[in-house]
Specification:
Four copies of one chain form a homotetramer.
Chain A (H helix, E strand, L loop, with lengths): L4 E6 L3 H13 L3 E7 L3 H10 L4 E3 L13 E4 L6 H10 L5 E3 L5 E2 L7 H18 L5 E4 L8 E2 L4 H11 L4 E6 H6 L4 H10 L3 E6 L17 H13 L6 E3 L8 H20 L3 H9 L3 H12 L3
Parallel strand pairs in A: 1-2, 1-4, 2-3, 5-7, 7-9, 9-10, 10-11
Antiparallel strand pairs in A: 6-8
Helix pairs in contact in A: 4-5, 7-8, 8-9, 10-11
């Protein structure tokens, strides 16, 4: 790849240094060209790791939209508003929330009505603060909170309705959906019907935790069904990978998943859609399955 | 109990004879005084089991509201509309749906958007047919369908919104909520906030199936939290039991559950609500837990 | 199929009449030629349903091994010992236990040490009663008991060791294994290593219940891994289907599963076992996956 | 507490510095007096954090049994054998394994028979290396491995039998047992029956993950049943806490759990054991439950 995408890291704490940066350094086609952090010590740490990058204590004026392709926001919550402004100025397509700390762990810990209001009002406030920016909530059943408020697609849609703003949507993560005991292809239709689908992420797990495995390794047929559902809603935006290979090489794992997504996509070209439609109209589960198994099993 | 409640069974198939009737016969304070079924053979079966009851091939004119206290509708779907009319004429407070067959079992079996529309439109049609009748959907994650469309409180609220009718609400079954990986006290607030709470049922299970165990036997603290949430929304209507003791005597099991609900209710009188509120406002899970454990553990 | 297998039903209660018989009547290649039941009324019921079958109040002398191919034991527990004798006389390869009622439902209900002893001693007693007969326990995590004593392969192996008899083994049901949170190919190796594998059954489910779906419809890759593990232990005996199509035609569903098993078997012929071995020796999960995905996805 | 327990940390990598040390520093009654690490940089880090502690590049001669009360082994696997020798010399009662990395993540990744042998042989080798030392395996269903080899009590007992050594037992963690879909009081009896119970740990979770919550906060009745089972086997050794309060103060959380365990213990003094035995002998679940609920609910 001759042309790298150029990015800035905003907030260079431990998460950025030890969690984000190693990925950027290993990946082909990406370069971190700027780091923003108010702490001199943290900027020194960034300079040690990224000798060619510019560093700055403040966001303003550091970069302009022509030279930065993406921003990795890793600053603490109190600085998010400012970061959102900058991301908007840079032309970011959307800003994603992953409110994994909102919820409860124990019975009787929470006034659930109050917690719900906090979560809804907090997102609304941010959405109203930046009405030109598209936001998206990535729901998840648990972790780190044992019970997360925005746990399923349907709960998140209800919350978004209650916010009464038009610039909040949903990131649908295939694995979060499995883990929430949903059928991913089903909730994809539901979120799309409400006009709230902002982004789509794929990976795999064993339905009990966000294992973030490579695509199609456990739920191959459901992944195919999900990609079919994406075609039906004419999804043209990228399908993102959100996987976390604990023991595998991250780049190899990413390539494996991309290869699988492409192969599944080619397979979909060969599904007889009329026959599939007929089987579904007739609620004939075995006929629908046969169409798919014939493709996978070379029958 | 000196005064029995008098009921009619509408539709006397196998479910009514072998599933419903034995319960009515064993329970104190209930009497089945009328059976309606178009089949002479089924009426004969009813007469053999209930010599004092009147039987009839048609609903009309058989009974009037003054002598019947409740109607047990056990007829097949094609006859439901007529049964609803009669229930309404008799002053039934609500008619409950349990759409346990709506959904899918296999990947690729369903066009999920179509299945959702069927479910939403079907209930809307009935609701519009009888606009004076209150309906309620009892959601459940699965069984008998492996994936039921109305699986959680939030999905059912979204569906009810889409129906655009005002006479459909929700039956919140504590065990179905556990089984759907919800926090029952949390979804109680959510359904109440939307003004859709029609009925409440209690029981217990192990969070993986609708075991329909006696109340408070596994999730004692969460049952207490649920009863506390019912007080907070000033629920005055009955709290129903929906348990299914496979091996225990049903009447003994019902009495055990009633006894537990009453004891939990007395315990709630002793919770210091100001301290609980303070702990919840401070997100102090351990302080909230201590209030409850002190009561249960006699500290 | 020109030659039918001839069977006898021993015990013609409701389970046999309504649960077993309809299946035999619908299936190709099977004929019920004899029914044994001590009750005249039940024999009359059998004669009404099976005009050509012989009926008898007692087992002895009714049939001999040359004309009966299989026995469907549907009598209550008190009669099992006698039925085992007859099955042995007829040359049955093994007698299967499914102790789905042994266990507990509630906390504090059971003295767990006592319950374990009951389960172990009960099976041992039967095994010692018929030392020439091979028995096999089909373990299952739950249903109908909420917690079944013989819930996993490992617990059952421990129990069999404690029995100290040589004629009790295990029926390994793929779906029960998924449902017990096991990896089926893993426990297959474990049971085989202990020399206790008596029979193997396949189907599929969603890992939370014994849904008894058609083979390979949800866990296609794990089914392939299971068939691969069966090859590795050189399993030559039949692979049985244990599925329960609630809404699908049972014969169509059985044919679909047989077709899938055969196609997966053909696919296994094409796996490069040296490469697979190399990937496994290197703990290279992605390389192992790639071998399999290349086959399924036509890469 | 006037007298502190004095400990040494062996291996001062990131886990020790950021994971272990902060806990020791905050806890009352503990003091880290020595740190062993071969790296000068790591020893310098230790000295910066623990100015009063002695540091050393090697284990030998650093400390003797009279002045060290406990050893926190945080060195990498290659150094474990040496650390075990030292722990033994210091009089450690047992050395615990938590083989959370042994297992597999993906289908087809592992030759399950090989993985099992690795796990069994690895522990056997260590046990034979130090035959005077008692070892104990803390089984867990998953995390960090998605499927851990020693996942349940029964699998671990089978593995220990296969090792053929007498100095390997089990650490039974209440929460790991819930999470493995076991009944903790049941497997306690099973492990005890095999003479392999080495240590017991308590905490709580939501049965789907090792949430490590404070004791009795979710499964109060099962915790009581577990403590009852400990009395029945006359367990006299300490009951350890293994909890991980993400958001709560760790010392407050530990005190809350200790308080709950003590209160449950007092409650057990008041259970009528003859009545409980009679209810269990009769398999009368409701009578057994009533005994417990009467205590908890002040009936």
């Amino acid at each position: 790849m001759t042309l790298s995408r150029r990015g800035a890291i905003v907030g260079f704490g431990g998460v950025a240094e030890h969690g984000h940066l190693p990925g950027w350094l290993r990946a082909d086609g990406f370069e971190i060209v700027a780091v923003v952090d108010p702490s001199p010590a943290r900027r020194a740490a960034a300079e040690a790791r990224l000798p060619k990058a510019r560093t700055s204590a403040v966001l303003d004026g550091l970069f302009d939209a022509t030279e930065i392709d993406f921003v990795d926001i890793a600053s603490p919550p109190a600085h998010h508003a400012r970061a959102i402004e900058v991301a908007a100025a840079l032309g970011a397509k959307y800003v994603k929330f992953w409110p994994g700390q909102d919820g409860h762990d124990y019975p009787f810990q929470a006034d659930h009505a109050q917690i719900w209001d906090y979560a809804v009002n907090g997102v609304r406030e941010i959405a109203e603060f930046a009405p030109q920016t598209q936001f998206a909530i990535e729901y998840k059943a648990k972790e780190p909170r044992v019970h997360i408020t925005f746990s399923t697609a349907a709960r998140t849609l209800l919350a978004i309705q209650e916010m009464g703003v038009s610039n909040v949507g949903i990131v649908l993560d295939f694995g979060h959906s499995l883990f929430a005991k949903e059928t991913p292809a089903d909730v994809l239709q539901l979120v799309h019907k409400h006009g709230k689908l902002v982004s789509v992420e794929v990976n795999d797990n064993w339905r009990e935790w966000d294992d973030d495995l490579a695509v199609g390794t456990v739920h191959l047929i459901e992944t195919l069904e999900f990609l079919h559902a994406l075609r039906r809603i004419k999804w043209e935006a990228p399908i993102l990978l959100d996987q976390f290979p604990f023991r595998e090489d991250p780049v190899t794992a990413a390539r494996a998943s991309i290869r699988t997504v492409r192969a599944l996509d080619r397979l979909l070209d060969r599904v007889d859609l009329n026959q599939l439609r007929a089987a579904q109209d007739a609620q004939d589960a075995l006929a629908a399955q046969r169409l798919i198994q014939d493709l996978l099993l070379h029958n």
